[in-house]
Specification:
Layout (H helix, E strand, L loop, with lengths): L2 H11 L2 H9 L28 E3 L5 E3 L7 H30 L1 H14 L5 E9 L6 H10 L3 E8 L4 E7 L18 E7 L6 H13 L7 H7 L9 H10 L1 H9 L5 E5 L10 H10 L12 E2 L5 E5 L4 E5 L5 E5 L2 E7 L24 H7 L5 H7 L2
Parallel strand pairs: 3-6, 7-12
Antiparallel strand pairs: 1-2, 3-7, 4-5, 5-6, 8-9, 9-12, 10-11
Helix pairs in contact: 3-4, 3-7, 8-9
Length: about 375
Amino acid sequence: MKISTMFSSIRNTFNSSTLSSFFSHNSYASPFLPNSQNFISMKKPSFPFPGISISSKQGRCFSVVSGSKSEDDFQNSSIQGSETFFRSVLGSMESVYLSRNPTAKAILELVQSVDDNQISYDHIAFRTFGVNGYGIDSMASFFLDFGYTSQEELRFPAKKLKALWFSPPSNSLPRNGSGVNGPLPRIFISELLVDQMSPQTQAIIRRYTETSGSGYKHTALASALGNLTWEKPLFSEFQQLASESEYAAWTLVNGHAVNHVTISTHRLKSHLRNIKNINQFIEENGLRLNSEGGVLKVSPDGLLLQSSTVADSVSFQFSDGITESVPCSYIEFAERLVLPQYRNLPDTEVKEFHRRDGFEVGNADKIFESTSKEQLSRRGA
């Protein structure tokens, strides 16, 4: 992406009148209550808007390149500048996620205390409504703009869902940080096939997405700020959606917030790099794992191993004044084993591309249950 194009796009999106309208409009008010037992008070995420320069936690800074720069220097600065901005947005999404999900925050701290190493994210996941422009494309456009590539589509007929995952750009600058400041993660975006739902559920989803107007153009911004792009729903309508699709109910109250991040266990250095060990470690610390289909989800080829916690809950104030606990997000773990053709490589030479890539419908179908009522009731048992 050219710097001039990036700045023009960003300035057009985030002009002063747009921001004033965004923050003053009631549909963007956060419905999550800070007095919930499972809610950590959140400071407003630092979301960098473009000026002369963009800086990151690592001290990197991109300045507008003068005409005296060579073409190679300009291209290199362009990549660094846009990636720094991109990572800042991811960082805001991560901040919102961690502030609302104490289990995820605690697990990241626990793993780091044992492993004493940087944690890499395998992927970050989002949920969407496949209607009124709010489907996969609405969130994917942000990642595609920054060099991500669309990969395999997955279908979940029983849940009336489809998903698409995206691989990070190959020209990403090397990073040795943790989380969003480490290797760029894959992105997994799912979508509810609204047209396959009952007329009542369709009507509710369509009505709320329509209240957002062109909010589908700003789903990444909404995720980074932790706000809905539509009006807060009625509790009775949340219940209607939950009775038919817990995925739909989750998305109605959480919007485009990060659904989960996934720790890449094989990138750890301690014994926790084995997913069975990290599962045992999590349970020994009194935290519950999603038991749907067994704690450990294994792909048919045996090369992709996944597990996840049960989602945290948070108090949500509905538009009719009713306050109820609703499921929020969770954290996942993934171990990608070395492909058969590379099994003879020394461990020190194994790279990520030598390992099993992609996702597995059977695994993902069970991981979706991390926000289900059945799993949440286990958590409270």
